[in-house]
Amino acid sequence: MQTPEGEPARVSAIYRYPVKGLTPEWLEGVELRPGETLPFDRAYAIENGPGRFDPEAPRHLPKIAFLMLMRDERLATLRSSFDDGTHTLTIARGGKPVVKGGLDTALGRQLIEQFMAAYMKAELRGAPRIVQAAGHSFSDVAAKCVHIVNLASVHELERATGRKVDPLRFRANVYVDGLAPWAELGWVDKEIGIGPARLAVFARTRRCEATNVDPESGARDMAVPAALLRTWGHQDFGIYAKVTTGGAIAAGTPVAVLGGR
Predict the structure, then answer these.
(1) Over the stretch 114-153, which tens digit does the pLDDT of each residue have?
(2) Out of 4, 58, 138, 180, which residue is the most buried by the measure of CB atoms under 10 Å away?
(3) Residue 192: C-alpha distances to residues 9, 126, 183, 220, 244 (Å)
(4) Longest C-alpha distance within the chain, in Å?
């Protein structure tokens, strides 16, 4: 796939979200694996009150079961970082660390849960609980997949709304540059290549009110789904794709449509 200038479309940035609803983490590169999400993407979540998630029999649950930006915008005022090797989560507020704990230990989870119980008190339906299960991802969709957003579509939304739109509102894994606006919405049921990796696109991403929240300030300052519906007649922004052939990708990796399925 070529840009108007003849250059191939490319990966602009890669992000993961180790804890559902918390801070995105930029990745220099990542190894995509067949049938998997990005490593540690949505590996943990925080149940909002009495939970239904059973780590011994993990299954996909609706996002309202967890703390998440659609309803709990105060999460965006926190900054979290996750250490792969120790599973340690550090949370800062106002530039200062406020709590730190290993999510793979009972004490570490308790420290984070106690902080969330106090900080998110008004939003909670009961005691928060950090949950996890080996191989499970707390994505908004049941399928293990990669979420892709086209930056040209972000710029079109900026044009329509007359204001700057932070691409991180869409909490994608892979941001792509060099495409025509909305080209990605035509990729459903097609195979795409991102460098050596191959992915099967299976759905457009229907947007919820989480995109109304500014990822820096935590302010609910836009009406993105309404703007999409009013301007383009749908609420779709981005696509989901399953990895069928693995491979290493990074910023600058070419992106191309390979054909239908």
Answers:
(1) 999 999 999 899 999 999 999 999 999 999 999 999 999 9
(2) 138
(3) 12, 43, 12, 34, 10
(4) 55
